[in-house]
């Protein structure tokens, strides 16, 4: 079963990346309910919300780091 399917799609940005503050603010507002839903599901499964949030921060940072290394050829 795809539990994430109930969260809905991620809307595309309406601002360009050069409009940094608006772009960032919009991204946060789009992802906030999705993140809350994911944390709710983790908590319902028995994980502590704080642990799940910290794990998501770790995984996000690792993902960005790995992408940076790959694009740098390392």
Task: Produce a short descriptive summary.
With 74 residues, this protein is mainly alpha-helical. It contains two helices and no strands.
If you had to describe this structure to a student in words, what would you say it looks like?
The protein is mainly α and 74 residues long. The chain has helices at 20-44, 49-71. The radius of gyration is 15 Å and the shape is flat. The mean pLDDT is 90.
- Based on helices, strands and strand pairing, what is the structural class? mainly alpha
> How many DSSP helices?
2
Question: How many strands appear in the DSSP assignment?
Answer: 0
Helix content: 55-70%
Give the ordered list of helices and strands. HH
**Largest beta sheet, briefly?**
none
Mean pLDDT: 90
Overall shape: flat
Rg (CA only):
15 Å
Protein topology:
Elements: H1 20-44, H2 49-71
List keywords for this structure.
74 residues, mainly alpha
């Amino acid at each position: 079963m795809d539990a994430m399917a109930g969260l809905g799609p991620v809307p595309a940005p309406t601002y360009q990346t050069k409009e940094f503050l608006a772009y960032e603010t919009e991204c946060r507002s789009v992802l906030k309910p999705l993140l809350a839903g994911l944390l709710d599901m983790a908590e319902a499964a028995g994980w502590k919300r704080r642990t799940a949030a910290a794990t998501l921060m770790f995984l996000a940072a690792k993902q960005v780091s790995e992408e940076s290394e790959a694009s740098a050829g390392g």
